Amino acid sequence: MRVAIAGAGGIGYSYAAFLANRGHSSVIWSPSNRRGEALAQGKPLVAHGALEGQFDVFVATDPKALLSGASVVILALPAYGHKQVIDRLLPHLKSGQSVIISAHLSFSALYFSRGLATRGLDCPIIAWNTTASTGRQTGPSEVSISLLRREVEMAVIPQSGMTAALDLCTELFGARFRPVETLLAIDLGNLNPTVHCGLALFNLTRMEKGETWVQQDYMTPAVCRFLEDLDRERRGIAAALGVECRSVHQSYAVPGKVEIGPLAEMMAEVVKIRQSVNGPKTLDTRYVTEDVPFGLTTMVRLADMTGVEVPLHKAAILLFSSLYGRDFTAENDILPEISNAFCALPSLAQATANGWPKL
User: Considering the entire predicted model, what is its pTM?
Assistant: First the structure.
């Protein structure tokens, strides 16, 4: 199958290698046109870590070429790039092509759905709560993959397309997907904003000074207590919406190796079995610039709709805005575009289940 990947960063590269290893043909497009030159010149994509090998990958120079002949397009880029990329993809999509939004945040699937409705297109939109793999570029044509995830939660708009969506995801990436009922569960189930908030907030000076530090080593008991409290707020929102979502403890549990218990004790076991991952070495990291405006602020929006108190979420946004000298709430360019869906809980439930109404 020909798979289009919008995004040529570490995750895009890891997906290209993953798909090629499974016999699919992948084509990558860099929205900034700053990446992928080595691959475009014919160099193979070299993968290290959880997946080893050299793979042929095509490179597109524009959205039209990216989508030509593709059965599915995967958005593999931070949420702060979603709106711009969606706007560039929409004119070239055709009915029947599937869309996958990897590590979905801030209901960008609804923004995509609104654009499809405007054009009168029928394209299923599949949203994952996290990435199928991790990936960091280690060179112009190299990627280090530290993890192939055992489980990824997925939802689809419209809900009636779940069987076909699950079959598609499984064909592409193997049997690692667990369907959930609605897009609400995906946004609430994306734990990156929760975990990254604690890691970035309490290791900010290490990032600012460019130090090398291993993330797992700095999930100390104090940080873990903060993460557990932040997680309780997130799950409180989910309960108010009648949505089931896993806890931060469940996300780190590994049957027979890491049993559910106090998060600090779990992390001590995780360190023993999981490949080390270094934390960011700069303040310009998606741990903040993506997860605060598109993750934490979305949780606050849902909390306000349900009357759930989330003081830690609000405080974290305020602290990061002060530390960075930026208004992170104002940097979310997706929620204002889909505000009609957030006028009441019934309208949000309808939109997340069936998509934006066609005009």
Answer: 0.93
